[in-house]
Amino acid sequence: MGFDPSLIDPYIVKDPEALAVNLAKALENLGKAASTWIAPREKAGRVDPVAEPAVELVKTLSGVAEYWMTDPQRSLEAQTHLMTSLFGVWMKSLSRLSMPAQTPPPPEPIKDKRFADADWQRNPFFDFLRQAYLVLSDWAEKLVENTQGMDEHARHKALFYVRQMTAALSPVNFVMTNPQLYRETVATSGANLVKGMKMFAEDMAAGQGELRMRQTDTSKFALGTNMALTPGKVVAQSDVCEVIQYEPATDKVLKRPLLICPPWINKFYILDLNPEKSFIKYCVDQGHTVFVISWVNPDQRHAGKDWLSYIREGVDFALDTVEKATGEKKVNAIGYCVGGTLLSAAMALHAKEGNSRIASATLFTTQVDFTHAGDLKVFVDEEQVSGLEEKMRQKGYLDGSKMASAFNMLRSSELIWPYFVNNYLKGQDPTAFDLLYWNADSTRMAAANHSFYLRNCYLENNLARGKMQLDGKTLSLKDVKIPIYNLATKEDHIAPAKSVFVGSACFGGPVTYVMSGSGHIAGVVNPPDKRKYQFWTNGKPEGTFEDWVAGAEETAGSWWPHWQKWIEGLDKRRVAARKPGGTALNAIGDAPGSYVLERV
C-alpha cells in the first residue's frame, strides 16, 4: 500500500462523548445565528438582500446552461471531457495506493495556498478531493469561456459568478473535507466549532441579520491613537469634507503645496496607517506642505450631493483652503482611485473655466477610461444600476456594507473564505492587522454622487469619450495639459494596469506612466524602508500596453522616491515652513478630524 497508516491517527476520534456534547453546543449557537438571520426577513415588506444577487446569478448562468444543454452532442462532449478528467484523477489515486508506503510520490509545487497543508498531498483521500475540485473548477470556467454567442459583459459576469461558486464550494471550507479542520476538530473534540459558531452568531447579530464577518481584531486600533498619527489640524470644513493641513517636519518646504484627494468609497487614512507605512508622513518629511481632503460619511442629508457638489464643495473648497492657508495659487494634486477620477473631471472643468490652480497631478490607480475596467463592471449594467438607484432613493445613500461586500467578493478566496474558515470553523480570533481594520471601516455613498459615477464612468464612459457634462459644460480631458504622473499597479483588480495605461492617452499634456508591483493598496502604500516589490518605467505611455510592459525597465523597491524626484523636477523652489492654517485660518481640531471617525 502506498499509504502510511500512521497518518490516519490524527483523524480518529478519541473522545466521542465530548465530541457529541460540543457538536450539540455548536448547533445551539448555529440556531441562534439562524434566528437572528430569520427575524428581519419575517417583517412585512423586507426584501432579502441575498435574493437579488441570487436571481442575477441564475439569470446570467442560465445563458451558459442553455448553450450547452440545447445541443445533445455538445452536452455529451462537455460531460465526456469532465468524466475523462475525473477518471484520470481516480486512476492516479489508485496507482498511488499500489505504491510501497516507503516511496510516496514527490510533492507537487504548491500553486494554490489554500492547499498548503501537507495532508492535501500526503493523504490519498484529501489528495483526491483536491485534484477533483481543481478539475471541476477548471471545467466550469472553460464552459463559460467556450460558450458561443455570449456578449463579453455577460461572459465576464458568468465567469465571475462561477468563480464565486467554486471558491465557496472548495473542500477547504468544510470540516470533513479539510484535513487541517478535521484534525483540529478531533484534537479539541469539537471545541473549535463551539467557539466558531458562537462567533458566527455574534457576527450575525452585529449585522442585524446580515453576516458582518470580522477580518481583524478591531479593538486593537483607534484613529489618532495608533493609526492616522501624522500631526496636523483640520483647517476647514464643508458639508462634504474636512480639509486637513499637516505640521511641517522640515525648516524649508516646497513652494507648491500638495493637495491629496482620496476616494470617498474608503477613508483617507489608508495613506496614514502608521508612521512606518504613511505616505502622508513621507511627503511631509520630504518637505511638502500636505493638505488632505477627508470626505464626510454621508447620510440622507447628503442624498442630493452629486459629482459637481463633490468638485465644488470638495476639490475647489480644498483649493480655496490651500490658498488661504499658504497664499499659494498653484498646487500639486494627488488623486487616488475614484478620487483621481473626480480630480481628473475637476481639472477638465477647470480648463473650461480658465482655472489653472492645479499645476501638476498625480493619479494613483485611477481610471478615466473604463473600457478595460476591472471586475467591478460585473455589478454595473443598466438593470443593476437602475435597481441600485431605486434603493438609494429610499435612503438617500448606498449602505457602506454593500460596497464593502462587493470589494470583498472581487477577492473572495482571500477576503471572505479564509476568514470564514479561521473564525467559524477553527474558532480562532482574527489577528490585529491595520490594513484590514481600514478595509472594514466602510463608508456610505451619497445617492446622487454614486449614481452619476456609475452611469457616466462605468456605464457610458463619458469622461473618456469627451461627453461628460458638468455645470453646463461638456468636458474634455484633452484640455488637461499639465504634467501627470499616472501610477498603476500590476495586480490591481479594481483599476487594472491596462485600464490605467489606456486612460493616459485621454489627457492633453505629458503623462509619465509608472507601474508598481502588487495590487490596488499594497502597490501604492509601499514605503521605501520596507524594500518590497518593484516598479516599472518605460517613457511615454504609447503603443499597446503589452509592448510597453515588454520594454519596461524594472526597479526594485518603492516608487515613492521616483515620484519625489519627478515632482521636484517640476518645481524645486523652497520656502520657510508653514504652520497649519497660516494667519488666515483657525484650526477646527486635530488630525485626523471628526468626519473620518464616523463608522457605519
TrEMBL record:
GO terms for molecular function: acyltransferase activity. One of its GO terms (cellular component) is cytoplasm. Keywords: Acyltransferase, Cytoplasm, Transferase. It comes from the Bacteria. Its main location: cytoplasm. It is found in: Cytoplasm. InterPro entries: AB_hydrolase_fold (IPR029058), PHA/PHB_synthase (IPR051321), PHA_synth_I (IPR010963), PhaC_N (IPR010941). GO terms for biological process: poly-hydroxybutyrate biosynthetic process. Residues 111-283 form the Poly-beta-hydroxybutyrate polymerase N-terminal domain. NCBIfam families: PHA_synth_I. This is Class I poly(R)-hydroxyalkanoic acid synthase. It comes from Agrobacterium vitis. The lineage of its organism: Bacteria, Pseudomonadati, Pseudomonadota, Alphaproteobacteria, Hyphomicrobiales.
